[in-house]
UniProtKB/TrEMBL annotation:
Membrane disposition: Single-pass membrane protein; Single-pass type II membrane protein
A GO-annotated cellular component: plasma membrane
Similarity field: Belongs to the ExbD/TolR family.
Descriptive protein name: Biopolymer transporter ExbD
Taxonomic source organism: Erythrobacter aureus
Cell compartments where the protein resides: Cell membrane
InterPro entries from the UniProt entry: ExbD
Length: 164
């Protein structure tokens, strides 16, 4: 006989269903208003050597952020990468400046062997991407800084107000 007897399975499932139907309302009534703790964010103890990039796009009219008449980043806009959050750079300039910056840091530390002895000395790249910037813009920035030699790339997000 190859059929399985499902009667015991159904009996167990019905008993579990009844238990949960009784237990859930009791558990819900015992939980008072839940208070989620809100922690004050602390200032980051960032290394000065870390490279900060902002990735955005122009608006629909081709106007960049910071220029008069900027209406906000657009998914149809042109990619804009800001080196150390200040100077806009092209892909080639991003690679060149990132490479020169990393090379200067490595030479100041005493060469590749010296900097590899203390992983804390290895600079990182922190990218802040505009919510409307296409992923291809962010991916291009990641590619260029990794090609320049930065081993670690991270993202910075804007904190959300829990009380809003």
């Amino acid at each position: 006989m190859s059929d399985i007897n499902t009667t015991p399975l159904v009996d167990v499932m019905l008993v579990l269903l009844i238990i949960f139907l009784i237990a859930v309302p009791v558990a819900i009534q015992t939980i008072e208003k839940l208070e989620v703790p809100v922690f004050e964010s602390l200032e980051s103890k960032d290394k000065v050597e870390n490279l900060l990039l902002t990735v955005s796009t122009t608006d629909d009219n081709g106007v960049s952020a910071g220029e008069p008449g900027f209406q906000g980043a657009s998914r149809n806009g042109e990619c804009r990468v800001y080196f150390n959050n200040i100077a806009p750079v092209t892909s080639e300039e991003l690679y060149d400046q990132a490479f020169e910056r990393l090379d200067a840091i490595v030479q100041r530390a005493g060469g590749p062997e010296a900097i590899m002895e203390d992983p804390e000395k290895i600079p990182q790249v922190h990218i802040r991407g505009d919510v409307n910037a296409p992923w291809s813009c962010v991916a291009g920035a990641i590619y260029n800084v990794q090609a320049a030699g930065y081993p670690t790339v991270g993202f910075i997000s804007n904190p959300v107000d829990p009380n809003a």
